[in-house]
Write a structure and sequence with these properties.
Helix content: 25-40%
Number of helices: 29
Strand order of the largest sheet: 16-17-15-18-19-14-20
Keywords: 4Fe-4S, ATP-binding, Chromosome, DNA damage, DNA repair, DNA replication, DNA-binding, Helicase, Hydrolase, Iron, Iron-sulfur, Metal-binding, Multifunctional enzyme, Nuclease, Nucleotide-binding, Nucleus
Radius of gyration: 31 Å
Low-confidence stretches: 1-11, 263-268, 305-321
Shape: globular
Family: Belongs to the DNA2/NAM7 helicase family.
CATH superfamily of the largest domain: P-loop containing nucleotide triphosphate hydrolases
CATH architecture of the largest domain: 3-Layer(aba) Sandwich
Number of strands: 30
Strand content: 15-25%
Distance between the termini: 52 Å
Mean pLDDT: 86
EC number: 3.1.-.-, 3.6.4.12
Protein name: DNA replication ATP-dependent helicase/nuclease
Cofactor: [4Fe-4S] cluster
CATH class of the largest domain: Alpha Beta
């Protein structure tokens, strides 16, 4: 029923849906009675148009409903309405049981072009089922609800060959479009094109790639559809289409590589988990909550012992293969068998730890070809594989968002002027002196500093958009909370969004603390437990009227940038859209939420990590330039900057001020400026460690050149065992001196080094890559730079050469920043040479040598975890 409600909001009224159901249900019941419940002798006869003539049909078993079938060999996948086991017989043959697809159609197209398309669909489903069930499936059924007719489909080899050839032609066209931006020609059929719902999109692409009215075959109709597009527009569309193609192609290659890998331990792909088994001690649980009906299964790594297991030498188990560092709650995943890669189901991760992962599915797991009675046994004997399944879907959303920008309507025109043409944004400063309660609130709120007030006033006076530059620790989340409160005083409706669920929920948690009502749209599995109760999908509502009333009553709605496609938001408009972490979101993804609002606010920091782009070519051509960065560079007057930071002490802040921010950051209070790490107890330690832990020295760089501490390169995975040991020794001593593990963070540019450090650090501290640490902070941060070699001239690193990433690394610590690396190697990177010079200026450089360190023994110990 939830699915019907979603559709009714998007397309039809509840009365229309109800009327359709009332008409359909008696027909469906009659069909079931005829094809499943009747005596064999009274089973209906269906003409499959084959040599055997009419066949009596009786459905003996419904094997699956909405079965996802995937055949990589043919490059095909599909969702089959019902997979059924059918008892058939003819006048000339004995009864037999066969498996076939059953497809339901709501229309009446039993003839003509539509009927041909439906027949072709069922034929392709027989091909998919043949692969899935490892048997020859030659027949299928089509049922037309409106005419109450059932049609048999007999698959002929010639038909399948024709369909596969057509599939290959389509694949070739797609390949040309993605590699050479060469689109297939338009049909040049005015009658067909005029009634096509894709006419606007088709003509825009035709125009963008050099087409004209003559080539379209539409004459004046074509000109009227694209007359609003300028050369600037078509160049912009071509550029971003190419960038999306490059990124999609790169990720597709990575995905193929991961599918060819044997298991998790033999590859370094963060998109898959392999060698998994079902937890024999855990029965699948069924979650029923209002409109949610899910089955949760718990998987363990076949070769990974429990976390409390220990090695024979007493060292704690390496967690380099731990599952929680590859996936997170809310990730879409595909469950497949190993070996063979038979796709079994799509699900969502609901719980993940170092040794287990729990996945929620819409129905019970089953393996094709196995009986229901022995299914549990087969499932527990099987080896499983889990892959991420949301990357490629995001590219479709990117393309959809991009083309919306060039449609011929008022909303698209408004955004096109601001984003493509870069027209100057407008502000109405006169309202600052009015009796507006929102303005009065901003001036009177004592918790706001001057920068935050100016930022909120910038938002309130914006007629088009405002940009808020929230440098590290400047309280941008608190600023957004107060901005929401001020906008609500005006009666504004607000759409809150960001790329990640965590960024959205962090803001909502603070809004909740202020007593502000909001609705969260999205998969409940991915939503933070503190705000799950606000998920619309979990609310107990009985009609579409209740849903609409709820959406109209509450003025704050929150959703991720990709979740904006929810049918619940169809035809919904907002006064303001506020996008957090906008500097990390690609431009096409940013466009989606902006289409729903009259004006927008982008909040971010383009001096920190840009959008994640994995294709080097796409990155080189500008895909990592966010909309926030584009508008900031075009119109600096639209920016309100938050300067006062409440995170870093003065010495740590001085690093990023000198290297990145040009002394624009300042400490928000004397307490922040003079903050230092406080130890609750004293322990003995080597001289070099005492110097590292000196509370009067907030910034320390441990130079390993005299050891030396060279990097190792294992299967393209960079590690530095000695740096890992140094990090472990410093961490252990910090904890012994009374610093809580939750106040310590360890970061490094490389996943492999993070995994190595997890293996040698026994204290309960957070260990992540730099990229995963943006938005987080700790009292004490330890950084392992990893790169160190005998010939530093030959050492190059795109990761360490990225100043955005270095900025994040330098701005996570509140009171103590401890860096470990080779000055000789790192100095070859210009920005890191400036960093080293600045640390020397602050008297924070410390050289360690072999006499300071149990070198060979610890190198051997660390090597166990590589």
């Amino acid at each position: 029923m939830w699915r019907w409600r979603i559709l009714s909001i998007a397309l039809l009224s509840e009365n229309d849906i109800w009327r359709t159901l009332v008409e359909a249900i008696p027909k469906l019941l009659n069909w079931i009675s005829s094809f499943r419940d009747s005596q064999d002798s009274k089973s209906p006869s269906i003409d499959f148009k084959c040599a055997e003539g009419l066949k009596k049909i009786k459905i003996s078993e419904v094997i699956d409903i909405e079965e996802m079938a995937w055949a990589p060999k043919y490059g095909l996948k599909g969702m089959i309405d019902a997979s059924v086991r059918v008892r058939t017989n003819t006048n000339s043959s004995k009864a037999s049981e066969i498996i076939m697809p059953l497809e339901f159609k709501t229309g009446k197209g039993t003839s003509g072009q539509t009927a041909m398309e439906h027949s072709a669909q069922v034929m392709l489903y027989t091909l998919l089922m043949s692969e899935r069930y490892m048997m020859n499936v030659e027949y299928g059924l089509l049922y037309y609800l409106q005419t109450d007719q059932t049609q048999g489909i007999c698959v002929r080899r010639s038909d399948l060959i024709g369909l596969i050839m057509r599939r290959n032609e389509l694949a070739n066209d797609l390949f040309k479009a993605s590699t050479n931006q060469q689109l297939p020609p338009m049909l040049q059929s005015p009658n067909m094109c005029r009634n096509c719902r894709h006419l606007s999109v088709c003509t825009i692409y035709h125009k963008a790639y050099g087409g004209n009215a003559e080539g379209s075959g539409l004459g004046d109709v074509f000109d009227s559809m694209v007359s609003h597009l300028t050369t600037v527009h078509t160049v912009f569309l071509q550029k971003w289409e190419r960038l999306i193609d490059l990124e999609a192609k790169h990720l597709e290659v990575l995905k193929k590589e991961s599918w060819c890998a044997d298991n998790l331990r033999d590859n370094h792909h963060p998109v898959c988990l392999s060698s998994l088994v079902l937890d024999a001690s855990d029965k699948p649980s069924q979650k029923k909550s209002c409109r949610v009906n899910r089955f949760v299964y718990r998987f363990l790594h076949r070769d990974l012992p429990l976390l409390d297991a220990e090695h024979a030498n007493g060292d704690s188990l390496s967690s380099s293969s731990s599952l929680e560092h590859m996936f997170k709650n809310g990730d879409y995943v595909i469950l497949s068998t190993e070996p063979g890669h038979l796709r079994v189901a799509n699900g969502v991760i609901v719980d993940i730890g170092n040794s287990h992962v729990s996945v929620s599915f819409s129905k019970r797991l089953r393996l094709p070809g196995h009986s229901t009675g022995s299914m549990a046994e087969y499932l527990h004997q099987q080896s499983w594989r889990i892959d991420k399944d949301e990357v490629m879907a995001s590219f479709a959303i990117m393309r959809y968002n991009l083309i919306q920008l060039f449609l011929q309507n008022e909303n698209s025109l408004r955004l096109r002027k601001m984003i493509v043409d870069l027209e100057m944004p407008r502000f109405d400063s006169s309202c600052i002196f009015s009796q507006d309660p929102a303005i009065s609130y901003v001036w009177s709120e004592k918790s706001l500093n001057d920068d935050q007030r100016r930022a909120i006033l910038k938002i309130l006076t914006a007629k088009d958009y405002a940009l808020i530059l929230g440098m590290p620790g400047t309280g941008k989340t608190s600023t957004m909370v107060h901005a929401v409160k001020a906008l609500l005083m005006r009666g504004a409706s607000i759409l809150l969004t960001s790329y990640t669920n965590s960024a959205v929920d962090n803001l909502l948690i603070k809004l909740k603390a202020q007593g502000i009502d909001f609705i969260r749209i999205g998969r409940y599995e991915a939503v933070h437990e503190e705000v799950q109760e606000t998920c619309l999908s979990l609310m107990d509502m009985e009609s579409t009227r209740e849903i609409k009333e709820k959406l109209d009553k509450i003025n704050v709605v929150a959703v991720t940038c990709l979740g904006i496609t929810s049918p619940l938001l169809t035809n919904k408009r907002f006064d303001v859209c506020i996008m957090d972490e906008a500097g990390q979101i690609t431009l096409p993804v940013s466009l989606g939420p902006l289409m729903f609002a009259s004006k927008f606010v982008l909040v971010g920091d383009h001096y920190q990590l840009p959008p994640l782009v994995q294709s080097p070519e796409a990155k080189e051509n500008g895909m990592d330039v966010s909309l926030f960065c584009r508008l900031s560079e075009a119109h600096p007057q639209a920016i309100a900057t938050l300067h006062s930071q409440y995170r870093m002490c003065a010495a740590i802040m001085e690093l990023s001020n000198a290297l990145i921010y040009g002394n624009r950051l300042r400490c928000g209070s004397i307490e922040v400026e003079n903050a230092e790490l406080k130890y609750s107890c004293s322990t003995s330690a080597p001289a070099w460690l005492l110097e590292v832990l000196n509370p009067n020295q907030p910034v320390i760089f441990i130079n390993t050149d005299s050891l030396p501490a060279y990097e190792t390169n294992d299967r393209k995975a960079l590690n530095n065992p000695i740096e890992a040991y140094i990090i472990a020794e410093v961490t252990k001593t910090l904890v012994l001196r009374g610093i809580e593990g939750q106040d310590i963070g360890i970061i490094t540019p490389y996943n492999s080094q993070a995994n190595l450090i997890r293996g040698v650090v026994s204290e309960p501290v957070e260990i992540h890559t730099i990229d995963k640490y943006q938005g987080r902070d700790k009292d004490c941060i330890l950084v392992s730079f990893v790169r160190s070699c005998e010939n530093p001239r030959n050492n190059t690193s795109s990761l360490l050469g990225d100043w955005h990433r270095i900025n994040v690394a330098l701005t996570r610590a509140k009171k103590k920043l401890i860096m470990v690396g080779s000055c000789a190697t790192l100095s070859k990177v210009p920005l890191l040479k400036l960093l080293i010079d600045k640390v020397e200026e602050l008297s924070g450089m410390l050289a360690v040598s072999k006499k300071d360190d149990n070198y060979q023994l610890q190198l051997k110990r660390c090597s166990q975890f590589i």
